[in-house]
Amino acid sequence: MLYLSGLLTSGVWVNMQGQNFFEELKRRNVFRVATAYAIAGWLIIQICTSTFPYLNLPGWLITAVIIFVAIGFPIALIFAWAFELTADGLKKTAEVVPEKSVTRNTGKKLNRIIITSLSLLVFFLLVERVFFAKSSILEDQQGEFHAASIAVLPFVNMSSDPENEYFSDGLSEELLNGLAQVEGMKVAGRTSSFKFKGQNENLSLIAEELGVNHILEGSVRKDGNRVRITAQLIQADNGFHLWSETYDRELNDIFAIQDEISRTVLRELKVRLLPEDEAEIDVIPTTDVEAYQAFLKANQLVVNRDIDEINVAIELYLTALKLDPTFAEANARLAIAYSLQMYYGNVPYEQGQADILKYAERALDLDQNLAAGYAAMGLYYEGTENEKARDAYLKSLELNPNQPYVYNWLGNLYSDDLDDDEKGFEQYRKMYEVDPLSPLSIYNRARVSIYEENYEEAEFYFNKNLRENPEFILTYGGFSFLKSNTPVSRYDEAFKLIYKAHKLDANFSRSFRIMVSNLIAMELNSVAKYYIEKLRTDYPESNELHGITGYYGYMTGDYSYFEKYTLPFVLKNELFAQNAFNYHNLVALAIKKGDPDLAFDVFRKYDSDLFSDDLVFKDDDKPWKGLALEKLYRYTGDVEASKSIVNRFCDFAESLLDTEDEDSDEYLNPRMRCLIVQGNYDEAFPIFEKRFLTERRFNSVMGLVNDSDPNITAMLKKPKYKAVVDQILEELAEQKQNTINFLKQEGDWKKEWDEGN
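Below the sequence we write its predicted structure tokens.
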């Protein structure tokens, strides 16, 4: 009774008697507050969901925002019911006399807030469609389904010994490889499938991300010489178990188990097997169980591309071959491991090549239809006999089309050695289709976007990799390349990215070269020398050392590194002597030393056809080597020979119009060089301004500034050329200071660098 009396006294009870509860909610604007809050809250969540990944913010922040918005909703409704905004400020609703209530005016304000929120919501949806929809489109590219498609998830190690992890992983990989032999079967790549190792995620979501219709999963319990394997095949869209089986066997029956599982899965998927497909499944890699276990363990170590793990893997492959010299697959994988050791480590070129050839040939002698054997031969031939390398890779993919890394190697071969970027990037796309979650696949997909000049898309893929695979070093190198080239040309940002890669993995020798190239562009030569010396000390046989010392000489005019480290290698190794870039360094060094024969001898040894007046320059490296020889002729006073090369080079430039657009880089670059060599600076200037200022091709400006060629020196004295270069140098000076500040913040700036820079 006292409570009812209080209500009557406050006037609330009377009001409640006059109106039902619903009407009172309306009067107090509770519905309007709920609507305004819901719209604003949903908008905040959508903005956070779309932008946080681009800002590299942790995923839990989005969850936190959703929780806070959800918690705030009932609180907002309670406040709307219990309080009223009046002319005298915020008061409890119970204290407001109904005749003086301004809830109607407050309702109008809330209506305006709702309309504004809806307008912002519509605006955001439009913006999201334009700027953020691309990410979802890109993510969906990996969801293209194939009827006969499967992902083999890593089998769970149920044994008490963690060391048996390699065995369960190896079994999964071998099942994956066996299924991949079947024509018409789409099998998700190993890296993508193993991405879900140890994760209890929804299988339908996994299948959607991998673009497959079926999942094969299972477990392995190994106890002494006994093994229990449980496998189950699942239809991903409905979670229906098509088949499951448990195998209790002696360990020496492992190959029979693999064969039985593979065949049962194929039967359940109703994939038609050809006779040769069945023969492939019947192949038993080795009859020695110990050799097989060493082989499986080595396979797991090679995956991460860590040089220390690669070295251990090589020893394990050798152990497997001591136990079973007829183990063809182990021979092939050992050859591939030797190639990786040469690439990521510090192995002399001749020694590495000999090891690759030895075991690749053994593998194919043992099995003429071994895909890995042809892949190994491709690695051996790459760089020396590129057509043979191409044919070997193609044969490997014909035998097994589900080899992501072979697509990568073939793509590199097309792009780097066969001058066919279109075919190269086609291979990268195929790699991404086979293994869409592999960090290398994502990295190469970003390279495809750079090639297509879709830089925003490339940045999306790089950021995706940094977010999902932050330890993958190549991403930092690729992203650094994007930042340091047209149209970005931000060497300070590029350096920060590759510096982080170096800190993550000091064994990644390529980071030295990329760091040095960015430092040289900003004229931080003392810092560049420091990293060159570290590269020389740690990796004296590295290809990166020879490449960066030549670049350092070209950009700075200091050829001491090139003379000491690269020239001896060039003189004895035809592969590196064939690089036109090395010829320009060689000629500059010969002129500086007053010894033209130093360069003439290399030209005669490797490119004697350049001395023929009948040689017609075509779209390869000969025209650019010819320009280096022309500079040498000018120095020796052979005017006639110099003019002959200039005329042929200019004819070559004009001939490009038959196949290239007049605004293309392929035409404009040689056209500009032709005009400069001829001394036609006024005619060359529009191209120069477009390329260096408009397109921000800053990466060779220091090379121009430090070039001793009389033609370049005379050109840069022209006021309009000087104005362009000065503008670029001003921006580079700002980037230089940013980099100095960054190194000081990191505690990596050395006092002696103050004077040298």
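The mean pLDDT is 81.
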